[in-house]
Structure formats: structure tokens, C-alpha cells
Amino acid sequence: MSADIQEIQSDLRAARIDGWLFYDFRGRDPIAQNILDLPEGMRTRRWFYFVPAKGTPKKLVHRIETQSLAALAGETLYYAAQDELRKNLKKMFGRAKNVAMQYSPKNAIPYVAMVDAGTIELVRSCGPRVVSSADLVQKYEACWSAEQLEGHLAAGVAIDRIVRDAFQLAAKSVREKKTLTEFDLKNWILKEFDAAGIWTEEGPDIAVNAHASDPHYGPTAESASPIREGDLLLMDVWGKKKAPGSVYYDITWMGYLGAKVPEEFAKVFGLVREARDTATGLIRRHIAAGKPLQGWQVDKAARRVIEKAGYGKYFFHRTGHSIGERVHGNGANMDGLETHDVRHLIPHTCNSVEPGIYLPEFGVRSEVNVYIGDGEARVTGAVQNEILALLA
What is the DSSP track for 14-33? Predict the structure, then answer.
């Protein structure tokens, strides 16, 4: 989503930040290009674009690429020599004391840490303190329109149905003693996606037993196991409508190829379910009360449930991720493990909540999507409360 300059300035004033400095060198910062909606063009030299909280934006470009930021509003400054770059960079800032950039202290949020350390040092040498643009970025990179939410919900209806049918196909194949591998089931789902107008850039991940202990296992013709009676079957399925600007729906469900789910599987799933519901409940309460909530706090709430039960070392990924036009979006992640995500959960964004326990013999995960509206948060699709007994 591209941004309106006046809207950016309003957000800067609300955040008490004096300005936002966009910088790029040879396409290293796609965030800057996306937010500014830069057209294609020759940009082989460093460029800077400073949006102050008040006043006119300023551009700093190389003298041999004077038109590189011509599409953007504001006054243009030029440089060729290094001294001229430093002089005009300092001039851009005026009296600004703090400046946001695509930077994260100690690389705590690598998804927005696009600016190299040397450039951060250069900016600091000109006077301003550099702060992270992480919360600003997600407003322009992660917020959904009403049409995108509608498409997400429509994709969810189709994907929920396809997943139910995929479980039934696995059960039917076992009953009829027909060979069906993880890879076969993956390809069947992709054909159903195509027929339903759903698209995915990769996946789905279909895994039985120990394969489900690998959170990113993706079956191939060579690696796939046959799906047999007594198997625990995990399906991690994501997709979106075949339309420009569509956003993803991303879920994980579990089934057992038998008449009764073994106690060990049911126990582990119960813990995962409790962690999932603890996280979604925390989100709902905070959003309804208007209380700020950061991504790492959601992760901590879910992780505490699993750690308390003694399975902490078997939950080795974040609790959830931002969802957008790509399945892993650029908003706050539910993460206090891999990173320390201090971004706030803001209106019109969506996240997965997907705790898991991955034992050597089998893995269990349950995943839902949580959409944050204006004053309320909700799970957008069906919710699994127990492992499906597929041969009952």
C-alpha cells in the first residue's frame, strides 16, 4: 500500500517522531519502494527522502540521477562528492531531533532492518537520533482494506471445505486400502484450489507422524510417506483468492487415521489448544479494552502454557506471524523467541496463532487466523477443538 504524505506526517506527529527518512541503494529496501510507490527507474546511486512531521519533504539524489525521485513531492537537493552528501543530508534534517528509519535496535525485528549500520552511523553523525520505523511500516505494509478482508473470508470458506474433504479422502483411501501419499494429497489439494479460484505460492505442507515434527516439512515425490491406518496427519494449508491485492488464509488441522484418537496424541493436542486459546483470548481482551499489546506478549502467553506442562523445548518457533498479500506479512509477529517483536497489534491487521509441540515421534500444531478490527478481534475461520478421528 502506498502512503499519502499528509497521512505519514499525521502518523509521525502522533508518534512524536520528527521525521521519517527513507533511504535506498540498489533496491536493498523494498519497504521504502513500496510505501513511496516508486515507479521503475534508474537508481544506481544512494538516494534519501525525508518526510518531516511538519513542512515540505526533501529529496537528496546524485547529480547524475537527478530525476530518480521525480515522482515524489518535495524540494530536491543534490550531491556528487561525499562531503556534499553529508552537508546536504544534515541540511535535510533541519531541527529534527529524532528520525525514523527501517532500523531495529540490535536487529530485534529483522523484517524491518533494511538500512545498513554504516548509513545509520552517517545519519547519527548529522545530529538526529535514529529510531525504528517498525510500527509505522506495518500501518502501510500490513493493514487490510475492507475488500481484502472480504477476500480473506471467502478464501477461508473454500479452504476450510477443501481441508475437510482432504481428510475424508485420506480416510477413504485407508478404508479401501488404496495407496495415497503425503505428496499425492498435496497435489489433490492444489487441484481443488485451482477449481475454487484459490492460489498459493508454495505448499501445502502435508505430514504424518515424525514428518509432522518438522514445522516446515513439505512432501516431495521422493520424500513422501504413504498415509496409513494409525497415522497422525497434519495439514498446514494456506491460500488466497486469484485476484490482485488478495490476502492469505492460513490454517493447520490434525486428523488421526483410526476410530479413536490415542491418549498421547489427545493430551498433546489439548496443550496446544490451550496455548492457542490463551493467546487468542489475550488478544481479544486487550483489543476490546483498548490496551496496547505487543507481539512478544502474545507469544509469551502461549509459550507459558506449554512450558508449564514440561514441553517447552519442543515448541521451537514463534507463536504466529503477520498475514498479508504474502503468507508471511510485514506486520507484528507473535514472537518473543526468535525475535523480540515490540510492534503493536493495530486495527485492520491479521495474524496467525499457531503454537506447536514437536516430539521425535510426532508433531502437533493448531493454527487459526485472528483479525483485528476497530475495537474487536476475532478468529476468521473454523476452530479445531480435538483431533479428528477419521475412521470413526
Answer: HHT-SEEEEEESTT--HHHH
Residue 326 CB: number of other CB atoms within 10 A? 12
C-beta separation of 258 from 391 below 8 A:
yes
Look at the chain and report how many structural domains it folds into: 2
Domain limits for position 113 = 5-141
pLDDT tens figures, 226-284: 999 999 999 999 999 999 999 999 999 999 999 999 999 999 999 999 999 999 999 99
Which CATH number characterizes residue 12's domain?
3.40.350.10
The confidence score (pLDDT) of residue 224 equals: 97
| Adjacent-strand bridge partners of 238 | 250
For 116-146, how does the pLDDT look when each residue is reduced to its tens digit (9 = 90+)? 999 999 999 999 999 999 999 999 999 999 9
In whole angstroms, give the CA distance from residue 354 to residue 5.
36
Cell representation of residue 325:
498479500
| Cross-strand bridge partners of residue 131 | 100
What is the sign of the dihedral through the CA atoms of 386, 388, 389 and 392? positive
CATH code for the domain in which residue 168 is found: 3.90.230.10
**Residue tagged 545519519 (cell numbers):** 123
> Are 198 and 89 in a shared domain?
no
Distances (CA, A) of 381 to 158, 252, 331, 384: 10, 11, 20, 10
Q: Low-confidence residues of the chain, pLDDT below 70?
A: 1-3
Q: Which of 122, 141, 160 is the last residue of a domain?
A: 141
What pLDDT score does 40 carry?
A: 86
